[in-house]
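Our consortium's second objective concerns turning raw sequence data into structural hypotheses that experimental partners can test. To show how far this objective has progressed, the report includes one record in full. It was chosen at random from the queue rather than selected for favorable results. The single chain below, 109 residues long, was entered without modification.
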Amino acid sequence: MIRGFARRALLPAPPRIGAVVRSAEETYEALVGGIGIVLLAAGNAPLLHRAGVVTRPLIDAPRSQLALIWRRDDRRQIVTDFVDACQDVITATSGTERSALATDIGKNE
């Protein structure tokens, strides 16, 4: 998705992937090492607010959508708790009632 966004909105040519990072620490190291730039969720920006890094909102970027996916047969408490927490955030930020997300656990088997 980021490649497609960058290709359409930021660059005249496809971007070159300078590094693949798996954590905030690796992202920070890549940034201060001069490998490139990073697009990340605004909520994650504070994780990189350190010396040598500047964060700015990307105001005109298209909105993104996320999907929460889990194994249908996974009934571990940690999974159901996480789904419930996501549902609570959706409810709190959208001003709507709880959707079917949390109630779908275990259905359609």
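The partners drew two points from this record. The chain has three helices and no strands. Confidence is low (pLDDT under 50) at residues 105-109. Both points have been shared with the crystallography group to help prioritize constructs.
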